[in-house]
Specification:
Elements lengths: L3 E9 L5 E7 L6 E2 L2 E3 L6 H13 L1 E5 L5 E6 L2 E13 L11 E5 H7 L3 H12 L16
Parallel strand pairs: 1-7
Antiparallel strand pairs: 1-2, 1-4, 2-3, 2-8, 5-7, 6-7
Helix pairs in contact: 2-3
């Protein structure tokens, strides 16, 4: 089975609040994280970064080391890679198929239907004092 990855796109507002970028799934239009398979020759971090661009039109610094590994979701087991967004583009590959929405972390938890992804967002919130405290250091990012 091909490994699956998801990007966890986040940013800080001017007040320091943490926001998460969600995208809609293609079929049922449920709120999810950008996700996909790891293409041959790519690291999981590279694949997560590519999915964030293709599905949400965002670029940024991604942790090559996952925040969480082997999380069971509706799409199978996947690793979750935080992506600190520093650029949004207006035209991206799946723009016509998906919506994107920045929401506070606590609201994102309520919008995500998938139990595995909801659990990830809850842990991201609970396990960090300021929302990003457990992210790999800058030296670990690609």
């Amino acid at each position: 089975m091909t490994p699956q990855v998801a990007a966890l796109p986040f940013r800080r507002t001017d007040t320091g609040a943490l926001e998460i970028l969600l995208v809609t799934s293609r079929g049922k239009k449920r709120w999810i994280l950008p996700k996909g398979k790891v293409d041959q020759g790519w690291s999981p971090g590279e694949a997560a970064r590519a999915e964030a661009y293709e599905e949400a039109g965002v670029l940024g610094e991604i942790a090559d080391r996952p925040l969480m590994e082997s999380i069971e979701t509706g799409w199978g087991k996947m690793s979750i890679h935080p992506l600190e967004v520093n650029q949004e583009v207006e035209d991206w590959p799946e723009r016509k198929d998906r919506q994107r929405k920045w929401v506070p972390l606590d609201l994102a938890i309520g919008l995500v239907d998938d139990k595995g992804l909801r659990w990830v967002l809850e842990r991201f919130s609970e396990d960090t004092e300021d929302g990003i405290g457990t992210l790999p250091s800058q030296a670990d990012r690609t």
